[in-house]
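Ex. 9. Protein: HDOD domain-containing protein.
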Amino acid sequence: MPTPLDLLIERMQRRGEFPALSAAVAGIQNATNSERQSVSELTHEVLKDVALTQKLLRLVNSVHYAHAGRGTVSTVSRAVALVGFDAVRNLALSLVLLEHMRDVKHAERMREEFLRALMAGSVASALCALSSESEEAFIGAMFQNLGRMLTAFYFPLEAAEIRELVHTGKYQTGEEGAAMKVLGLGYEAFGTGVARLWGLPESLQRCMRKPIGQPPVRPPELPAERQRWVAQAGNAVVDALLQGGGGPLRQVADRYARCLALAPQEILEATARAREKLAVLVEVLNLQPAAGSAVSQLLLCAPAEAPPPPVPQEDVLAPHALKASPPAQSGFAPLARRNSPQVADLLAAGVHDIATAMSEPFQVNDVVRMVIETMFRALSFQRIVFCLRDAKTDTLVGRLGLGEGWLATAHAMKVPLKTPGDLFAAVCLKGADTLIADTTEPRIAQRLPAWYRQHVQAQAFLLLPLTSRQMPFALIYADHAAPGGIVLDEKELALLRTLRNQAVTAFRQHG
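Predicted structure tokens for HDOD domain-containing protein:
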């Protein structure tokens, strides 16, 4: 008598996509199983699919992987040499799922499922200290979602019924119990069954089976068991982010900290890095979710954590949180500047140059100079100043800069971090990227510090705080002489943040 798994596989086999998907996965897996781990075999399998090849190369050339090589990567062979065999294999497996699970009728649902799995993999990867472990964690956490993704694609009606049952709250085991009711087996059993059919490694199949019970109070001794908990943690973080608010995420961090031998704050920081990585993947793969959808919360630029220190008066900064500029702004007309593609190209070239520099022994000051020079040239700022925390006074002071009168501005800049009294201090203590388009606006003007009113008086400025463990340790300040002089689109904004994060990474690596 056929099992529920046999019946589901039989139904999938009737659709042309599943045999093609199975063949593609098997081809990649056979190349991976080669004793020589032959680069030529993996390259051959990837090149069979033109769309897969293009997407993989775009990913390898993305901001996330730019540090791995010099110049544009235009061949799969070079991609393997630069970012590693396992990394390319995992990217290929991930992209194969994406390419073969396209459904016009349910495009948004499949996009959400794929983004959810990608985010889980990204978080799990970020939780690992060793690159070899991170690649296994990525694919393990992602494939823990295989059963749900297959159901959403091949059995959309059943998937909708499962979601409805979960919403009723009748099943203590959540999705697994609801899936058992509708499909005859849980998502986990469905996913691991298909993985077995595809001949995926036993180690990956084992990682797809979620560990039972609460996380242990000590890190598991066996690497395979640790991988299961890392993958579980990655998916738990995603579930918390989808709930919204900082509480659930903090609870997950506290629950898994001892099991992973990490501090809760390190888990939150890994989540932030994973969100940045996901934002790059979304842009490269053109997977933008619908505005306001639950999964769009995964792409926020900062993780939902504990609330920032309270501002003792009405918070007038919220409307100035850094975001892409609209086509036209009330009160003034945006000034003419270089066209957006040129700005983005200059920023992206800087990201690449800095990544290359950081792949070799480097000095932090050199990286900082490259960061501010890239921003200054691309966006034609009047001046830009890099501030660093003075440990004795707990104050941010100007250190490096470029542009008109930057040295005088740097000498004047004093941002105390003990209290969020003025606008600069409030922004830094919040860690909030902020664009002030018009400093003459009354509610903004009254929050400007005295040193700014006396010595700077720029009409528009940008603030990009650098934080570590939720505390600011540096600040990038850039300004323009006219109101509305700083205009940013989504791509430019993402690249600015990437540059800032490269500076943070440089400080972190040098202790």
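Check your answer against this statement. Confidence is low (pLDDT under 50) at residues 301-317, 327-338.
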